[in-house]
# Entry
Amino acid sequence: MNAKHIRALGLAAALVGWSFTAGLDKPWRRHPIAQAGYGTGLALAARAPLGLRPPNLISGWRLGGVVAGAVAAGVAVGAAVPQVRAAMLQRELPARPGHWLAVEIPLGTVWSEETAFRGALATVAGDAFGPSVGRMVQALTFGLTHVPDARGAGEPIGVTVAVTGLAGWVFGLLAERSGSLVAPMLAHLAINEAGAIAALAVRRFGQGSQFGGVRQ
# Structure
């Protein structure tokens, strides 16, 4: 194991460790600005190529837009399934939905995670292990960082790690194919925002009302 391997695995371990501090009684820990600053700082320290300038920016918008549209459509279809709506009704939602949609998701979740994982960790791990293995390291780490959330929500840990790990792998592939973090950011944003809006809509109109063209 050389210095690059140690650096990559050390960063992966630090990201997992950071995720376990989310439950601490510290208001700043989950603040969107703190989260975004953490991810941005890691990306800058790793000298990660963010691809926020043309032509990579344009490529990211194109690829990410297509994926985001498909994701949003899929969530809309899924929200019409009675079992899915029932699960959404049981979901605990934030007290300030507007702040959740406009600040917490795009800044505290999407920007912070994409800069940290598809930016910093993908760059360091790719340099240490090569593109394919590096993407796997990034994806596995991304999955493991969702263990605290799964435990807090009472969800199956193995399933959560597998699903979020797969998402991390896809996000990494989008970043590589487009050369820009904009692509995975748009896809990530679509998943979280569409799911959040669907949950709010179901809660607003109720399980028994018409939603997505289906009446129960």
